[in-house]
């Protein structure tokens, strides 16, 4: 093992400490930036009309056959065709509620 000169060991420990303090410092800066630049809250758009019809059994069987968690959602489109919201339609047995 290399022996470091006494002065160099102190600098190494300071460097390691600075690196250790970097992630919390960055988190604080990112959180502060996000708070300042967060868009104003908007009313949650609720889709008009009736809820979607239940999915066919074949779709539920397909979802349940998947070896991973899966959910099925349907986009709700605005009058101009943009996606405005999503409706939860179904989930498989692996997905948690």
Quick summary:
This protein is of the alpha+beta class. It has helices at 6-37, 57-65; strands spanning 71-77, 83-91. The longest helix has 32 residues, at 6-37.
Structural features:
two-stranded antiparallel sheet; elongated; 97 residues; 2 domains; alpha+beta; single chain
Radius of gyration: 26 Å
Number of alpha- plus pi-helical segments: 2
Low-confidence stretches: none
Strand content: 15-25%
Number of strands: 2
Q: What shape does the CA trace take?
A: elongated
From the N-terminal CA to the C-terminal CA, the straight-line distance is 54 Å
Strand order of the largest sheet: 1-2
Helix/strand-derived class?
alpha+beta
User: What number is the mean pLDDT?
Assistant: 77
- Provide the helix percentage: 40-55%
> Main beta sheet, described?
2 strands, antiparallel
How many separate structural domains?
A: 2
Order of helices and strands: HHEE
Task: Please describe what this structure looks like.
The chain is an alpha+beta fold. The protein has 2 domains: 1-38; 43-97, no CATH class. It has helices at residues 6-37, 57-65; strands at residues 71-77, 83-91. It has a two-stranded antiparallel ribbon with strand order 1-2. The longest helix is centred in the first third of the chain and has 32 residues, at 6-37.
């Amino acid at each position: 093992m290399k022996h470091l000169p006494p002065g160099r060991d102190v600098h190494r420990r300071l460097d390691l400490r600075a690196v250790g303090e970097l992630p919390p410092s960055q988190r604080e800066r990112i959180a502060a930036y996000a708070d300042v630049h967060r868009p104003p809250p908007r009313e949650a758009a609720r889709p008009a009309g009736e809820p979607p019809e239940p999915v066919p059994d074949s779709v539920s069987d397909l979802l349940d056959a998947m070896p991973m968690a899966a959910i099925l959602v349907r986009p709700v489109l605005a009058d101009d065709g943009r996606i405005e919201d999503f409706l939860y339609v179904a989930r498989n047995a692996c997905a948690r509620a």
